[in-house]
Specification:
Chain lengths: ~90, ~350
């Protein structure tokens, strides 16, 4: 269920996705890490992160969870992405 | 062997795709081409060829156009032909996928669906060129048009792993495509990539031979693996193919329709002909995906299907994955984690 996931757990899911897509150490990714300025993540990387996060959260909440395509470019930091996901759960 | 084929990919779909699937089947009856696309379009095309019972069809209702942003389109169009084809492979309904449509969309579909293997953030497209002196793995030939030094170093590792598997080389020689063989030649990216590849390969069972030139690809120069960004690689590949066509035209002007001359030319260049060589394979994704020219004819589509089947038979994915993991593990042990590369994908 959605309420089984804490904000910290959602952040860990996002952080793991970012680390996996960009092949970096998860420990180097914090809430304030910027996708563009710090990670140089391009649009393909961002979409891939979104796909992984959606899949992981769907599995955890046993239901539908989607991130709006129009919102992807507005999520500037990893923390902002995690907060966005928490709000939509 | 079941090969999922994007019915709507390419400039001349669906006709050349269907004809290519049937050609592949004629040459190898053990193949099962699975056309992925709208059922009605597939049915009409197969009926027109009296081939309804020869090929399987899996429904997919959407197509990704060449002008669309690949990643966003693949994400938005869950029922796109390339996405369904990738899903089919991932879920075990097919052994490999082939598309002669949008390269970026095929790469994104494969990446999102198959997943990546260790050591790869952007899967490069690799092709084996039957060069005069020895085969040459050329990559990237169109997957990522802008690649920074870190990404080019990744391509070098992936290319070395592929050469070990595909060409059976214990210590592949890796070169960086530039405008001259001296280490000071090239733009800032090439100069930085020179050092990055040198450091990445280091003490690994692969040898960096420095810069190589475009002519080293068809002739077979000092490198078994030639690394470049997707833009330059694609330009080089199409330039080589265009040159073959130009020479064929020149022969016609000189020798007319002399069948002996043209037969000799075809024989001499068959190993370089896009219609017979097969497509390029995506390295670094956990599944076989082969991409062909948008302008492919039926022969080229059939060739891509055969190349995909051969890649499955050869175990290219598990073997490259293992070879790459080995190279990456050694590299990380020696030099620490890689720097995140900057890249732009079409």
């Amino acid at each position: 269920m959605a309420d089984a996931l804490t904000a910290d757990e959602v952040f860990e899911i996002v952080r793991a996705a970012v680390a996996r897509v960009l092949e970096i150490d998860p420990a180097t990714v914090s809430r304030t890490t910027s996708f563009a300025a710090d990670l140089h993540a391009d649009s393909l990387a961002l979409v891939e992160v979104v796909e992984i996060v959606e899949g992981a959260l769907r599995a955890r909440v046993h239901g539908n969870f989607e991130i709006d395509d129009d919102d992807i470019e507005d999520l500037e930091t990893v923390g902002a992405a995690a907060d966005y996901a928490v709000a939509r759960l | 062997m079941r090969i999922a084929v994007d019915l709507l990919g390419g400039d001349h779909a669906p006709d050349v795709v269907v004809d290519g699937a049937l050609l592949a089947l004629d040459a190898d009856p053990s193949l099962v081409p699975v056309l992925v696309g709208p059922i009605d379009i597939a049915a009409d095309a197969l009926a027109a060829r009296d081939a309804r019972d020869r090929v399987e069809v899996v429904a997919a209702s959407q197509v990704i156009e060449m002008a669309e942003h690949p990643a966003r389109a693949v994400r938005a169009k869950r029922d796109a032909t390339v996405r369904v084809a990738a899903r089919l492979v991932h879920e075990g309904g097919a052994d490999a996928m082939v598309s002669v449509g949008s390269t970026g969309a095929t790469m994104a579909a494969a990446l999102f669906t198959f997943g990546r293997v260790t050591g790869v953030t952007r899967p490069p497209l690799a092709i084996v060129v039957a060069a005069a002196a020895h085969p040459v793995v050329l990559l990237d030939v169109g997957s990522t048009v802008e690649a920074g030094p870190g990404l080019l170093a990744q391509f070098a590792l992936a290319g070395a792993a592929y050469a070990r598997v595909r060409l059976g080389l214990e210590e592949p020689r890796v070169g960086l495509l530039s405008v001259g063989s001296e280490d000071v030649k090239g733009d800032d990216t090439r100069k930085a990539a020179y050092d990055a590849i040198d450091a990445a390969l280091g003490e690994l069972p692969a040898r960096f031979v420095g810069n190589v030139e475009g002519s080293d690809v068809p002739l077979g120069g000092p490198a078994d693996v030639v690394v470049t960004d997707g833009l330059t690689g694609n330009v080089l590949l199409k330039g080589l193919e265009g040159m073959l066509t130009r020479i064929a035209h020149g022969l016609t002007a000189v020798a007319g329709d002399d069948p002996v001359v043209h037969r000799a030319f075809r024989k001499a260049t068959a190993a370089l002909d896009a219609d017979t060589v097969g497509g390029a394979i995506l390295l670094g994704v956990d599944g076989v995906a082969v991409v062909g020219h948008g302008a492919s004819n039926a022969g080229a589509v059939a060739s891509c299907i055969h190349a995909a089947a051969q890649a499955v038979t050869d175990g290219v994915v598990p073997n490259v994955t293992a070879a790459l993991a080995d190279l990456v593990a050694r590299r990380r042990l020696a030099a620490g984690p890689p720097v995140m590369p900057a890249s732009v994908t079409t």
